[in-house]
């Protein structure tokens, strides 16, 4: 177990709650968790500890939104996400953590801009279908890469599902299954890199209650949101997350 001050433990608990809220109501809030974990723990340890908590949050997300998922929408994402995961794993074997995060932050800002531009386009059905195939490949590969490197696929994939104009509930239900699958797929890669170790798991035992509390808080907040407010919050949190990665 790491030797942490009471203030550090309190901050990690807040981060764990942010994970729970992000899984059941507000995708992008987990950027706060990424920031806190990275500030308190060594880079690799923070990534491993956060991954375990994200998997716990995924279980609550699926339970909360299980009736609203559009699982067929995930099929085009599987090949590019797999490619992105492998690329991220190879990248972590050699890459420096600091400039990697800055690159990811720049990618996220680009993704936000492209997404907002795509939403304003008036294309016919054939063009939309072709654009959807290209978008699945681009967003999926970026999502796989960023989640492997920094647990930062949330903003990328949020932009993908916003661009596809998913209703709020379908958005949350579909992303719940997506991230459950992708986070479980990351486990063997993370273990092989030494990112997840016994001290990581011991730390997470004390933080799981925070994820649970955050998940129930998210369920409460969800009832207060409409579609427009939800989309605006997701976009703002994505931009904030990108800027954090750029300046951290």
Summarize the structure in words:
The chain is an all-alpha fold. It has one domain. It contains ten helices and no strands. α1 crosses α9, α5 packs antiparallel against α6 and α7 packs antiparallel against α10. It is globular, with a radius of gyration of 17 Å. This is Probable membrane transporter protein. Pfam families: TauE (PF01925). It is found in: Cell membrane. It comes from Microbacterium stercoris.
Which helices and strands occur, and which strands form pairs?
Blueprint (H helix, E strand, L loop, with lengths): L5 H19 L5 H11 L2 H23 L12 H15 L4 H24 L4 H26 L2 H11 L4 H25 L5 H25 L4 H21 L1
- How confident overall, as mean pLDDT? 82
Number of strands: 0
What's the domain count? 1
Q: Sum up the overall morphology in one term.
A: globular
The CA-CA distance between the termini, in Å, is: 25 Å
User: What would you call the structural class?
Assistant: mainly alpha
> Beta fraction of the residues?
under 5%
SSE series: HHHHHHHHHH
Percent range of helical residues: over 70%
Q: From the structure provided, what is the oligomeric state, counting identical versus distinct chains? A: single chain
**What's the story with the biggest beta sheet?**
none
Low-confidence regions: 122-130
InterPro entries: TM_pro_TauE-like, TSUP
Keywords: Cell membrane, Membrane, Transmembrane, Transmembrane helix, Transport
Protein name: Probable membrane transporter protein
Membrane topology: Multi-pass membrane protein
